[in-house]
Amino acid sequence: MVLWSERYDRDLGDTFALQEEIAAEVAKALEVTLGEAKRVRAPTLTPALSDSYFEARELLRSGAIPCIQSSAAALERIVREAPDFARAWAALAGAKLETLRLSRTDRARLAEDAREAAERALGADPSMGEAYAVLAALEGEFFGRWREREALLEKALAAEPNNPHLLFRHGQFLVSTGRVQEGYAQQARAFELDPLDPLLAAFHGYNVWSKHSKDSGREILEEAAKRYPDNVFVWFMRLNTSALDGNFPQLKCCEKMARGSFPA
């Protein structure tokens, strides 16, 4: 079944303008309400810089430490060449935040780097919701300052109400404050908007497994594992469900795959 079909004849030099135009048309076809969030056009980039940006974004999806570090390094090169590119600054802030989450050293420096990148993103585009989400995570070093964090997340969603990762982060926050049902609902909505994202599939699969149907949850996780055989988030959630199910043969397999993503 074809849900959307259209032809576009444009100059490929402005990749991001084309991407936003197509995304808007797809959203209309799928009846996804875009709201009143401002859509600020990205600066014109060279094809090489555009490719580097998308490659860095893809590396972030893996969840593996070396990939996140490579993504951060690539994004740092991009913002040096295109200092007004808000989305690259926001992505860099996210990469620094993930590095901070996984690091035991240099945490103060990493937190400052993430904050600076988020602020640079907002300086270039005040409606960059992803940057607000990073600042929310940095409040109280992931714990405490709940009201401040929630206000920043609400600001992020007001700017980009249909951004799946912002919905996911908001869901995480709701779960952490005891609003589990609301949090899982937000993460389910994120998965519906982007069912091919491994992070969203991993958490939604686990949520379904834990609260609704173990079989359905396992099915979501197994499908994600087939599509992303090296993804850390997917294997971590499969590891959890296998352990709690007492499925020891699968547990050993998942543990081996998860360890392979975190080299010593």
User: Are there runs of 5+ residues with pLDDT below 50, and where?
Assistant: 1-8, 28-41, 260-264
| Rg computed from alpha carbons, rounded to a whole number of angstroms | 19 Å
Number of domains: 2
Task: Please work out how many helical segments DSSP would assign.
Answer: 13
What report would you give on this structure?
This protein is mostly helical. The protein folds into two domains: 15-194, Serine Threonine Protein Phosphatase 5, Tetratricopeptide repeat (Alpha Horseshoe); 195-264. The protein has 13 helices and no strands. Helix 10 runs parallel beside helix 12. The chain is globular.
List keywords for this structure.
264 residues; single chain; disordered N terminus; mainly alpha; Serine Threonine Protein Phosphatase 5, Tetratricopeptide repeat
Topology:
Elements: H1 15-29, H2 47-62, H3 65-81, H4 86-102, H5 107-124, H6 129-138, H7 146-159, H8 164-176, H9 180-193, H10 198-211, H11 214-227, H12 232-245, H13 248-260
Short description:
The protein is mainly α. The protein has two domains: 15-194, Alpha Horseshoe (Serine Threonine Protein Phosphatase 5, Tetratricopeptide repeat), CATH 1.25.40; 195-264.
